[in-house]
Amino acid sequence: MFDNQSTGGIRVPRDEELMSEALVRIFENVVLTEEKSLQAGYFSDLSIAEMHTLTAIGPYEARTMTKTAEDLGITTGTLTVAIDRLVKKGYVIRQRDTKDMRVVRISLTRNGKLACRMNSKFHRVLAKHILEGYGPEDREHILKLVSEVDTYIEQQLKRYDNTEDARKTAMEVANDKKSKEKA
């Protein structure tokens, strides 16, 4: 029931250890598969980070640099460097707002929109292959579980958005481990 391996001697229930390993493996494999599919395809000049930037901009209307940086969880300075590269590669157009020259709007070129659509298709095909072979009830159960995991991870991210909250959370985790060790 308990496993002491790879946990620094802390007793962890086997199902938690298996779940932990699976989550890490899934995350790493999705990112690696996405990266390799990019390298092998028409958009081999794009990195994963650049593809995610294109996705954040989206294929429809122009967005501000500030809003896009916020959605990506990066600074506008970091986004500026990425946008410079994507403009040079021909995936993004950068323009000053006609009403407020301080505002910079970015949008995708035809190639940027195509790359964005192809990346979206990659994710849809991945989901399709995961779900195929399951009946409607099992699919509903899988989607419910994935949604619950997603919600939990989003909640954890929000807790870490504030540095002070991150310190409190780290302390809570440490205290929780200590109480489990005593039990």
Task: Spell out the key features of this protein.
5 strands, Arc Repressor Mutant, subunit A, 9% strand, two-stranded antiparallel sheet, globular, mainly alpha
Brief digest:
This protein has 183 residues and is mostly helical. The protein has seven helices and five strands; from the N terminus they run E-E-H-H-E-H-H-E-E-H-H-H. The chain has a three-stranded antiparallel beta sheet with strand order 3-5-4. It has a two-stranded antiparallel ribbon with strand order 1-2.
Explain what the structure shows.
It is a single chain. Helix 3 (65-72) crosses helix 4. Strand 4 and strand 5 form a beta hairpin. The chain is globular, with a radius of gyration of 21 Å. The chain has a 3-stranded antiparallel beta sheet with strand order 3-5-4. The protein is built from 7 helices and 5 strands. The chain folds into 2 domains: 2-133, Arc Repressor Mutant, subunit A (Orthogonal Bundle), CATH 1.10.10; 134-183. The two termini are 15 Å apart. By secondary structure, the chain is mostly helical. The mean pLDDT is 85.
Question: How many helix segments?
Answer: 7
The global form is globular
CATH class of the largest domain: Mainly Alpha
Distance between the termini: 15 Å
Give the secondary structure arrangement, pairings included.
Layout lengths: L1 E2 L8 E2 H27 L7 H10 L5 E2 H8 L3 H13 L3 E5 L7 E5 L1 H22 L4 H26 L1 H20 L1
Antiparallel strand pairs: 1-2, 3-5, 4-5
Helix pairs in contact: 3-4
